[in-house]
Prior knowledge:
Lipocalin; 9-stranded antiparallel β-sheet; 3 domains; alpha+beta; Beta-lactamase; disordered N terminus; 23 strands
Amino acid sequence: MRSILLIAVVSTLLFSCGNNKNTLSDNSGFNKSKLDSLLNLLHENDKFMGSVSLSKKGNTIYSKAYGFDDIETQKKSTVDSKYRIGSISKMLTATLVFKAIEENKLNLKQTIDQYFPDIENANKITIANLLNHRSGIHSFTKDTAYFAYRTDYKSSDEMLEIITNYQSDFEPGTKAEYSNSNFFLLSVMLESVYEKPFGDLLIEKICAPLDLKDTYYGSKIDLANNESNSYTYSTEWIKEIETDLSTAMGAGGMVSTSGDLTRFLEGLFDLKIVSQKSLEAMTTIKDNHGMGILPFNVENKSGFGHGGIIEGFKSYAIYFPEDSLAIALTSNAIDYNFAGLVRDVAKCYFGEPFSLPNFNAVEISPDELEKYEGIYTGTGGGKFTVTQKDGVLHSQLNDSPANPLVYKGKHKFFMEENGAEFIFNPETGQMSLIQIGVANAYIFTKE
């Protein structure tokens, strides 16, 4: 995704609006016209292709699609277009695990050494640790080698060998750290206890009962099956190389539509798949992680869901229990702060104020950027090093790679990779960090 300080209005409309389904009326404060304006504006300025669905108490109240499934053939997207959903898959995999627990095939406290005896600390790591990312098992997607083999087919045994060779990142249960390896292992365990392929289990246990006709474990992208290619933006939309989903399985290998994702969330929270006890376990949050589910907050509303990124696909699915509201966004091409878009879609429903994006040029000189540079330390010990390079501000958390920040005016910057918002106060020497799904801002002070 490009990172620039001058964002120009794109004068030519490359993409026409997609197919829309009829929606049911809703008596909430839902500002549909503003949501239309937001999505149309992004679409017209080459910022977004994809689908958005909202469902209230089982009734679709908004469903629209924009852009193309395939730019080369000009195959238009519709609300039935299917997208790779990346880590949203984890919610469905976790649901399968709790289904297995209820059928007495697994339990949360059992350790994984019966299945993976050669993984470090296998005799200490429980199924619960895998579900809430407290296992200490290194994530295979954090390994630079992953990007060399991700386009190739890998058998489960080959992936297991890769994961088994990692050293543990930390002692099991001591903290939470997101790892795709956890959910790959859960997929393998499910296949073992049911003696069925993972894709078949997904259909049998979730998709068939909830009538999710467009959700499944994916394979090679098939445009004839209403699947879509994904794109990233440079000076034009560039088609992304496909990941072979054998490397992902239940960690990120599923395909779905925005409509199916809202139906899945409603079925999950209406207890049509698992029990209240299981749902409570899934939604119990510790260190910002549930079991296959993450918290999502917008203004004074609390929800649960998960995001997903794979290739140029970005998606998010959220459920607000108090409002019986499900929101899903699936995109195959976005050149905009996706986390901010998700937040603004929710604000449209809840009637919360926000400003439509302004794609007129926002200029800032290297001299002006100097006032934001420095080392900022948070109360929890995290440290951001903020520097500029070639007229672009960059932030680096601890020893992680530095990421470019896009200037939005009024001391605000966005990290487009994950949607984090950085707000500086040069007078006090403080920096606020706002992340999607986190209710409160993190405050960092300049050293």
